[in-house]
Design goal:
Keywords: Aminoacyl-tRNA synthetase, ATP-binding, Cytoplasm, Ligase, Nucleotide-binding, Protein biosynthesis. The protein is of the alpha+beta class and 705 residues long. Helices cover 49% and strands 15% of the residues. The protein has five domains: 2-64 and 120-207, Alpha-Beta Plaits, CATH 3.30.70; 67-116, no CATH class; 233-334, no CATH class; 342-543, Hypothetical protein af1432 (Orthogonal Bundle), CATH 1.10.3210; 581-702, Isoleucyl-tRNA Synthetase, Domain 1 (Orthogonal Bundle). α23 (627-645) runs parallel beside α26 (677-694).
Length: 705
């Protein structure tokens, strides 16, 4: 017979960030603790509100199965002497609690097995709970101690409830004895709530005005917000992070709408969102589904059904009003000066003590942005591959340099001082208000992008150049002063900066010589002239991020293999965009039937050439002695002609696959190390040319063969 199990910890209001993790840890600890002891369990459900975390398990066995404890003693050679037990054997018998005669033998050693009946589950739960509490403590770095006891938890514990079926389990912790009592909503149902069965937990709490199920509560909150927004004729901005936080803050969700004065709509929408959402945990309302036109309405989630809702609304509005008033005052004060005036103050703001001021950083950024823009045309091709640089290209350079010099100016404005998360965004607004070109304003607004995985890269070329310059300067500066990240610490977020550089190159289609740009960025640092070691370490650091970004990605229904990336990296290419294109081409090539044979042949060729030492590259067809030599030579010539016309790396590798048959025939019929030195040298030269072909797109010897 199986029974449901319930274990609930009731406490003072938990911090929102701990509510769900602690509930999951409780559920995991109890379920795993029972399973470890051989007690079968069914499904597990966790519940969490600000005042409680709980786990409910279905179909829990009432006891362990019978247990067999096996003990292995000393080897027989040490246990017996002249047919009599040695002190070691007698000591093992005492340890087992039996006479020596009761011991058995197994695998050449003394052996004893003791069968004991399984313990009732109700007796196991207290020790499992204590183990689980120790695991939960690891989630909370700072815990509270209350009253006269020594127990600690994230917040003072007020009650414990533990039932197995209909029976209360004698559990004691935090100076409390568990019972069948739980508690409903603090105001709507404050009296103790006795539970008749562990299976009735969620339903009993719903009658006591508590939505204990996190997923149901979250869905209800979303539904109420959307309904309230629709009544206002708008659409609510609902982010998952804010929704999760609000879900962890309430037990009885009640959506209430509010409003602020229309004069505050003079503020940029991001300022209002930061004030209303970030500071107050309210949801803003927009008039369009694209969420571009902000209204003066907001929606809050209350934890109580008020008899006078107007008082709650007035209180919410009263909290928002002074914050928006301050924000509007700061914004209007900031607009009294153009952005260039703020940028001039950056010389007094330290970027890093060994790297100078932010003013110095923006000058380095401007130099880097100019260099990047000068080498990349507006269509994303290297300037050296087009006839001339167009006027648009020159404007990209002009806009990028201007944006680089102004992009950090908002750091000394009042609004960014109050809302640091709006840096860059406010700079874009101030640039527009200052009369800067729209391309400059957009570049300033977006120059921090991409900020994390999933966020877009800058949408304009000028913005991409400035973002690259910013990230390259930070990477070069921190590496130059010897503070590169360790395996566990990255205080300057250099891995994120490196990935941002790569994403801009790849997604923006920019053929950037990354090693050259990193070297120039290092050159500009106050730490001194170019250091080849620093540049090499920095380039390798970024390439490691590229490997992590590409390897494992699904392409053509298969994940990209690490060998595929390494085959391209082996060529020492400095252009991330070119590396990606080659990797994708090789990824397609390895699926061809010819790929393993060519990879194996290239490995063999490489070993032969390595043993041969220096090899002349010229081939003399007159010295061929076997038809297979000539066939391979002609096939290579044909393949080279095709490659000269190929427009993609994929086509080159497809062409290379046609060499499989003549390569196989060559190695089957031709002895490379012929006795005649001239013939041997000619065959080695042929293999050297073939090796070069196998390294045209990637080093095929790195691939599985």
């Amino acid at each position: 017979m199986t029974l449901p199990l319930l274990l609930e910890i009731g406490c003072e209001d938990l911090p929102a960030r701990y509510v769900v993790p602690l509930a999951n840890a409780l559920g995991r600890g109890i379920a795993e603790g029972l399973a470890k002891r051989g007690v079968s369990v069914g499904t597990s459900s966790v519940f969490a509100t600000p005042r409680r975390i709980a786990v409910q398990l279905s179909d829990v066995a009432q006891s362990q199965p019978d247990q067999t404890a096996e003990m292995v003693g000393p080897a027989l050679a040490a246990a017996l002497k002249d047919g009599q037990p040695t002190p070691a054997a007698l000591g093992f018998a005492r340890k087992c609690g039996v006479e020596f005669s009761a011991l058995g033998q197994k695998d050449g050693k003394l052996y004893f097995a003791r069968n004991t009946p399984g313990r009732p589950t109700r007796e196991l739960i207290p020790e499992i709970f204590q183990d689980t509490l120790r695991q939960m403590d690891e989630l909370v770095p700072k815990r509270m101690r209350w009253g006269a006891g020594d127990a600690t938890f994230v917040r003072p514990v007020e009650w414990l409830c533990c039932l197995l079926g209909t029976e209360s389990i004698p559990l004691r912790a935090f100076g409390l004895d568990a019972s069948r009592l739980t508690y409903g909503h603090r105001f709507h149902a404050p009296d103790p709530l006795p539970l008749t069965s562990a299976a009735h937990y969620a339903d009993a709490l719903r009658t006591a005005r508590v939505w204990a199920d996190v997923a149901l509560r979250k869905a209800e909150i979303r539904s109420q917000i959307e309904t309230a927004a629709a009544k206002l004729g708008g659409h609510a901005r609902i982010t998952e992070d804010l929704l999760d936080e609000v879900t962890a803050l309430v037990e009885l969700p009640v959506a209430i709408a509010g409003r602020f004065e229309e004069r505050f709509l003079e503020l940029p929408p991001e300022v209002i969102v930061a004030t209303v959402e970030t500071n107050q945990r309210y949801f803003t309302v927009f008039s369009d589904t694209a969420l571009t036109r902000l209204t003066n309405h907001f929606i809050t989630i209350s934890n109580i059904e008020s008899r006078d809702e107007s008082q709650v609304i007035a209180g919410n509005e009263r909290v928002v009003r002074p914050r928006l008033t301050d924000a509007l005052f700061f914004y209007q004060q900031d607009l009294k000066h153009p952005l260039v005036d703020y940028a001039a103050k950056l010389d007094a703001v330290t970027f890093q003590k060994d790297l100078g001021s932010i003013g110095a950083k923006v000058e380095r950024m401007a130099a880097l942005a100019r260099g990047i823009a000068a080498t990349i045309a507006a269509d994303g091709q290297p300037v050296g591959q087009v006839a001339s640089v167009s006027r648009d290209d020159l404007r990209f350079e002009e806009w990028a340099v201007r944006a680089a010099r102004l992009c950090k100016g908002d750091l000394v404005t009042k609004v960014v001082y109050e809302f640091p998360e709006l840096q860059g965004l406010m700079g874009g607004y101030y640039a527009s208000k200052s009369g800067e070109h729209p391309e400059v304003a957009v570049a300033i607004r977006e120059h921090y992008l991409p900020t994390q995985q999933g966020t877009p890269i800058p949408s304009t070329r000028a913005g991409q150049y400035v973002a690259l310059a910013d990230k390259l300067d930070t990477l070069a500066g921190i590496f130059a002063i010897g503070q590169k990240p360790s395996a566990s610490k990255d205080p300057f977020a250099l891995r994120r900066a490196a990935l941002g550089v790569l994403r801009i190159c790849l997604e923006g289609g920019l053929p950037l010589d990354l090693r050259q740009q990193l070297a120039e960025a290092v050159d500009l640092q106050p730490a001194g002239k170019r250091d080849a070691t620093v540049v090499a370490e920095l380039f390798e650091f970024v390439m490691e991020r590229l490997r992590a970004w590409l390897v494992g990605q699904e392409h053509e229904g298969r994940p990209i293999a690490i060998e595929t990336f390494e085959s391209v990296k082996a060529l020492g290419i400095h252009y991330p965009l070119d590396v990606q294109r080659r990797v994708l081409a090789v990824h397609g090539f390895v699926a061809l039937e010819a790929a393993p044979n060519l990879a194996a042949a290239n490995k063999r060729i490489r070993n032969i050439l390595k043993q041969a030492g220096a090899v002349e590259a010229s081939v003399d067809p007159a010295k061929f002695e076997h038809a297979a030599e000539g066939a391979l030579f002609e096939a290579m010539k044909a393949q080279a002609a095709l490659n000269a016309q190929a427009t993609s790396y994929t086509q080159k590798l497809v062409n290379l696959a046609s060499l499989r048959a003549p390569v196989d025939a060559f190695f089957e019929r031709v002895m490379v190390n012929a006795e005649d030195p001239a013939v041997r040298a000619n065959r080695l030269a042929l293999l050297k040319q073939l090796d070069a072909m196998c390294r045209d797109v990637a080093d095929l010897s790195c691939l599985p063969g």
